TrEMBL record:
Pfam family, one: KYNU_C
Cofactor: pyridoxal 5'-phosphate
Family affiliation: Belongs to the trans-sulfuration enzymes family.
Key words of the record: Hydrolase, Pyridine nucleotide biosynthesis, Pyridoxal phosphate
Protein name: G3974 protein
Species of origin: Coccomyxa viridis
Length: 365
């Protein structure tokens, strides 16, 4: 970051778009990220935010199914996904409908031949429940629908094989397990076979076939390039690329094995050390159905998390009562897990959570 700020921008200025490869950085980082999610290098682009990318790919998918009017998603999906779908439908008018299924619904029963797009999150942000990507994609395709996967809570933490599963589109963030930092650029995936038949609605200049020809009308670039919008955020891309490079140094299967071990150890220790305080585990017990997080429910969840943060155990709270513990296998240790549970035990035993300062709601939970 210092080198880019002081040398590439501080000295070389705009020449760095060519001299230091800024112009192709979004593609370069996307190609690296493709290795983490089971995609081809030219199928992934780093751009914008997860929310914006979702809007783009769902809009593109709807155009590929012009005679279908229904979008299916989960009621428990991450709120921004549902908000963006609602906003897209408002733009389209009354022609389209969003149908939400509960997590225990039979997905196959929800996907009829009137469904255009199915929007699913691979790993649930609230519970850590992980869907069978290949199976769900197959069910959608059997009904003639396209699938968009949200990988925000799985990329970099659990194995993702988009091509093997036959996925059509995917989005995700660089913030969480990919270590890109707060507000890191997001990414999107578009299957090779669909790229040149797609039109995305945010036709910005970096998605133009010749952005520096400064033509007065829009001509989309070929392939994944057309899914860019405006100027890429270079400093954020630099930070994200370092995070992805570090992730690629590790064997992904070994990362998954460690993730499972960390989560299983946490579950066992909570049961052993904290059984007196009525925590309810809402994450699946089976590692094959769980991402790299364990979520507990407790009526005093918010105050407990604040007390834990004060003790150096940084989890997060999800309304109305979820304590979420994420395990980044690249750098979290088994000792960290043991210490976290001991601090949880101390917070409960000493009723630290009952202090007034831990009950004050902050803007970010």
């Amino acid at each position: 970051m210092a080198e880019v700020v002081e040398q590439e921008w501080g000295v070389d200025l705009i020449s760095s778009w060519n001299k230091h490869g800024w112009f192709t950085m979004a593609n370069r980082v996307g190609a690296k990220m493709a290795k983490l999610i089971g995609a081809k290098a030219h199928e992934v682009m780093v751009a914008d935010s997860t929310s914006v990318n979702l809007f783009k790919v769902v809009s593109a998918a709807l155009q590929l199914r012009p005679h279908r009017r229904i979008i299916v998603s989960e009621r428990a999906n991450f709120p921004t996904d549902l908000y963006m779908l609602e906003g897209l439908i408002r733009q389209l008018g009354s022609r389209h409908e969003l149908r939400l299924m509960d997590h225990d619904d039979d997905i196959s029963a929800s996907i009829t031949d009137a469904v255009a797009v199915v929007v699913l999150t691979h790993v649930s942000y609230r519970t850590g429940r992980m869907l069978d990507m290949a199976h769900c994609t197959q069910l959608a395709h059997q009904a003639g629908a396209l699938v968009v996967w949200d990988l925000a809570h799985s990329a970099g933490a659990v194995p993702v094989e988009l091509n093997e599963a036959g996925a059509d589109f995917a989005v995700g963030c660089g913030y969480k397990y990919l270590n890109g930092g707060p507000g890191a650029p997001a990414f999107l995936f578009v299957a090779e076979a669909l790229q040149d038949s797609c039109e995305q609605p945010l036709s910005g200049w970096f998605g133009h076939a010749q952005p520096f020809a400064f033509e007065h009308t829009y001509t989309p670039a070929s392939g994944i390039q057309r899914f860019q919008c405006g100027t890429p955020p270079i400093l954020s891309l630099v930070a994200l690329e370092v995070g992805v490079d570090l992730m690629l140094e590790a064997c992904q299967q070994e990362l998954r094995q460690k993730s499972v071990g960390l989560c299983d150890t946490f579950v066992a220790l909570v049961q052993q050390e904290c059984s007196s305080w009525a925590f309810q585990q809402v994450s699946p017990n089976s590692a094959s159905k769980r991402g790299s997080q364990v979520c507990l429910a407790h009526p005093e969840g918010y105050a407990i998390i604040q007390a834990l943060i004060a003790q150096g155990v940084v989890g997060d709270f999800r309304a109305p009562d979820i304590l979420r513990f994420g395990f980044a296998p690249l750098y979290i240790s088994y000792v960290d897990v043991w210490r976290a549970v001991q601090q949880l035990k101390a917070v409960m035993r000493e009723r630290l959570w009952d202090r007034e300062e831990y009950r004050q709601q902050s803007a970010v939970t």
